[in-house]
Design a protein that fits this description.
The structure holds 2 protein chains of 2 kinds. By secondary structure, chain A is mainly beta. Chain A has one helix spanning 3-29, and strands at residues 52-57, 66-71, 80-85, 88-92, 95-101, 108-113, 119-124, 127-134, 140-147, 159-165, 170-174, 179-181, 194-200, 206-213, 216-223, 228-234, 237-241, 247-253, 259-265, 270-273, 285-286, 291-296, 299-304, 312-315, 318-324. Chain A has a domain at 1-30. In chain A, 8% of the residues lie in helices and 46% in strands. In chain B, 51% of the residues are buried. The chains are: A mainly beta, B mainly alpha.
Chain lengths: 325, 415
């Protein structure tokens, strides 16, 4: 081992460390790069109890990705912006659920907030936010995340859906711990079972969700108290119960692989496709008993829930709508 | 043999050689692997959040990448082995692999949110890993006395695992200092990878070609296939593949543990850390033990520990103590099998085909494990977890028995 070689390595290593050190130093000095521009956003006071649509506002600027709202019947009105930044947001009965990065930005958390938008509880999430829903009475919340890393070979992705007690911020556990039975009453247990997209009934113990196993999706009806669920039918993703509790809007996968929004009548279990013909990956939100909202690219659209009419743009530069009735 | 004995005397007279006699080259390769693993794991730990939060890409998109590269990497590994044997430049081929992976770190940053480019860079990163693995293992074995191979691979694997544990810690530490500054992680990861490459390029030496040198034309796909004609090596590959076919992947072991002991899924990453810690601490002692009492007993003993893990997956109870015992047993299984397998392979493959032979052994084992995890998932779904674990347990014992008998058959090496 020649001394020249050692010296050369020391120089090389010093150069590497110098670059690393100065880059880190520069990063520490530059302005809070991660935070959204730091401009003081209006908190926007208290969220009204009804008649508004809350959403993640995506107009470029200091309040990018912050929670905002407009009156449901006057959506061109100026957006009331807040400084609550969420990846997914949902609100009902004065309680909200905001899925956001944790302070260190090393992972995600679900924050429970009241009508003053002040987070009161925090539940860590084990993956990347996908869906958030609050039950109509504000008692329960549900989160769906994509799990990170270490996925096993046969499943390209896996999800985790958990129920949260909105009053205490307690994690009531994942749907993986529920006993799920098939149409013939047999208990389904498979390592590739995934749950996502919860929607709650008026009796918030009752919920609907998607369960997937063996490459097939199913609509399940479950109960938070009994921790049981059963399959209602197949090929249903991201169900959303209408405010009157009679219908479920969902996305159905066609043989081509494209999604199509349908509405299922729960009494008769018959379904019809909606006029929206694009393939969209979202859990719809009912605007009222006649219309549904959903996100496409970075806009919220609206379409009648009975298969008639045409889709229309509802709000530009906005996603994750939540209707407060 | 005479020449290497002489070498040891020379080295021994020049400085005090510690028990276990692990050469400088091996330690340096271990340091390279450690730095490379720190670099790789710090990026891996934050990549999903980076892609989703900073770039707004859907998790569905990066789920698709995950499966794609696993098979590809296995094949690249054999090519890397063949090329480095043919050129007789293990160090340079390994450096190419390390270099490619190092360059992929800033490339990820520069790719912005161009999804196709990101997938390409991730694949390239995996290809780099595939290229470097076989020549690196060949370098370790060629820098080591046959009697000390177990210790050498043990030292290498311990350092490698240490890096894999430090990487995520460093990444999260950096995010703590500079929230949201993912670029810092990529840039520092690049610098650390360069350091690792530097250690390799400046200090690691290709072992002097032995004078019996076989002309490099003798290294070809055909000669690689001929390796498998040697009964002992063939049986080792077959045994390792058979054991791989009956190995339940970590993900499934942790998943069933999590369900049985009912702890939060958020703790699952800690299981990986616990296993890695046991692996790291036990790799050297078990490697050394394999040099002393024989590699096959330690290797099969490792799989016996795995069989014990299966049995306890079927038994009721557990709790905190049970969990710790699991992780120790699981880590010990890795420590007793991972490096020791390569030590066994190295002693059965002629030096001019060393990288190719070790690549074949590694690829056969890796691909059969991949297949096993698909089969296990299907079995779990069809017949339930208990039957699936039992089937894999019975298969594992059979593979141990047949492999053990075949590999201890007297005088097979002579044929």
């Amino acid at each position: 081992m020649s001394w020249n070689r050692r010296l050369a390595f020391v120089a090389f290593a010093a150069a590497c460390l110098l670059v690393a050190g100065s880059y880190l130093g520069w990063a520490l000095m530059r302005d809070d790069a991660g935070a959204p521009d730091g401009a003081p956003a209006t908190r926007g006071g208290v969220v009204p109890t009804g008649g508004v649509v809350l959403f993640q506002q995506l107009e470029r600027g200091p309040s990018y990705a912050s929670v905002s709202w407009v009156p449901a019947e006057d959506r061109d009105a100026e957006r009331i912006r807040t400084d609550l930044v969420c990846e997914r947001v949902h609100v009902a009965a004065g309680r909200g659920l905001c899925l956001m990065l944790n302070t260190q930005q090393t992972g995600y958390v679900a924050k429970v907030f009241g009508s003053d938008l002040e987070p009161v509880q925090e539940v860590p999430l084990t993956g990347i936010p996908s869906r958030a829903r609050v039950s109509p009475d504000g008692r329960y919340g549900a989160t769906t995340v994509f799990l990170l890393g270490h996925s096993y070979a046969q499943s390209s992705f896996s999800t985790r859906t958990s129920i949260i007690d909105m009053a205490t911020g307690q994690d009531l556990g994942s749907l993986d711990g529920f006993v799920t039975t098939g149409v013939d009453g047999e208990v389904i247990d498979a390592p590739d079972m995934n749950y996502w997209g919860v929607t709650f009934g008026q009796d918030s113990d009752v919920f609907y969700a998607t369960m997937e196993t063996g490459g097939q999706t199913y609509l399940i009806e479950g109960n938070v108290q009994t921790r049981e669920a059963h399959v209602l039918r197949d090929n249903v993703e991201c169900p959303s119960l209408s405010p009157d509790g009679t219908r479920i809007a969902y996305k159905e996968k066609a043989s081509s692989g494209a999604w199509r929004f349908h509405v299922l009548e729960l009494d008769t279990m018959t379904d019809l496709p909606l006029a929206e013909e694009r393939s969209i990956d979202d859990q719809v939100e009912w605007l009222d008993n006649e219309r549904v909202l959903y996100g496409v690219d970075a806009d919220i659209w609206v379409v009648p829930a009975d298969g008639t009419g045409h889709p229309q743009r509802f709000l530009r530069d906005a996603l994750s709508p939540a209707v407060l009735r | 043999m005479y020449a290497t004995e002489g070498l040891r005397t020379v080295l021994g007279s020049r400085r005090k050689v510690k028990a276990g006699r692990v050469s400088r080259n091996v330690v340096l390769l271990g340091v390279t692997s450690m730095l490379t693993d720190i670099s790789a794991e710090m990026v891996a730990a934050v990549l999903p959040i980076y892609l989703f939060y900073a770039l707004g890409l859907s998790p569905l998109q990066f789920g698709a990448v995950d499966g794609a590269y696993q098979g590809a990497a296995a094949l690249v590994r054999v090519v890397g082995g063949l090329v480095s044997d043919r050129l007789r430049r293990h160090k340079e081929v390994a450096a190419t692999g390390y270099g490619i992976s190092a360059l992929c770190k800033p490339a990820l940053l520069l790719a912005g949110n161009a999804w196709g480019v990101i997938v390409g860079v991730i694949l390239l990163d995996r290809a780099g890993k595939g290229i470097r693995t076989a020549p690196r293992d060949a370098l370790i074995s060629l820098s080591t006395e046959p009697a000390d191979l177990g210790s050498a691979f043990g030292v290498h694997r311990a350092l490698d695992t240490l890096g894999a544990m430090l990487g995520p810690l460093l990444a999260f530490g950096l995010l703590f200092l500079t929230p949201g500054a993912f670029d810092v992680i990529f840039v520092l990861s690049f610098c650390i990878a360069l350091l690792g490459l530097g250690v390799l390029l400046f200090f690691v030496q290709n072992p002097a070609a032995d004078n019996s040198a076989v002309p490099s034309e003798h290294v070809s796909v055909r000669s690689a296939a001929a390796l498998l004609a040697a009964p002992r090596f063939r049986w080792l590959v077959v045994t390792s593949a058979a054991l791989g076919l009956t190995t339940i992947s970590d993900a499934f072991v942790y998943l069933s543990l999590q369900r049985r002991l009912d702890f939060s899924v958020g703790f699952v990453p800690l299981l990986y850390v616990g296993t890695a810690l046991a692996f790291m601490l036990l790799a050297v002692p078990l490697g050394r033990l394999s040099d002393r009492i024989g590699r096959l007993p330690v290797f099969l003993g490792g799989y016996a520990l795995l069989a014990l893990v299966y049995v306890s997956l079927l038994l009721p109870g557990g709790g905190q103590l049970g969990l710790v015992a699991y992780l120790v047993a699981f880590g010990a299984y890795y420590a007793a099998t991972d490096g020791v397998l390569m030590a066994m392979g190295a002693s059965l493959v002629p030096s001019h085909l060393r990288a190719t032979g070790l690549a074949l052994l590694g690829t056969a084992t890796g691909l059969s494990r991949l297949l096993a995890s698909v089969v296990f998932g299907a079995l779990w779904t069809l017949v339930g977890i208990e039957v699936a674990v039992m089937a894999f347990g019975v298969g594992l014992l059979l593979a141990m028995l047949v492999g053990g008998l075949a590999l201890t058959r007297p005088r097979m090496a002579a044929s």
